[in-house]
Prior knowledge:
alpha+beta, Arc Repressor Mutant, subunit A, 2 domains, three-stranded antiparallel sheet, three-stranded mixed sheet, 9 strands, elongated
Amino acid sequence: MEGLFAQLHADVVWREGELVVHGRRRSGAVWTVEADGHGLVVMPSVFGWPDVIVDYSPRAAASIRYPVPGVGLLWEEPRPTPGGLTAVLGRTRAALLAELGEPLSTPTLATRLGVTPGAVSQHLGALRGAGLVTTHRTGRTAVHLRTRTGTALVAEPPN
């Protein structure tokens, strides 16, 4: 349980068998979440950012709504890709190549492009095989970046 909640949000802590949520809006506010046999629902939300929202119901499960990672990018327009590159590589691979001007993880790419992490991994494998992307692994996290060749493909041709 500790590992699950440790990765959920910095304000959510599993400590000595209790789920504790530290509030930001009211300084010093701390809640101990008690499910009272009704269970606990943990759900991502874009509406409470950056806070964790705790909701109790005497007849139903308690719930914790936590901010979705990358929510700041939710309404951002996707970066444009050169039309010819999309025609050759396909929309998803061209978009991946365009995003990889900075090192990004698989889950971050999946969120930005609105596809599954599995799909991102599959497309990255093809791009890596073509020498357009490189991947560095640190522990369980893989970070991807365009190669020089990949960057040259994404660059707009001079007029």
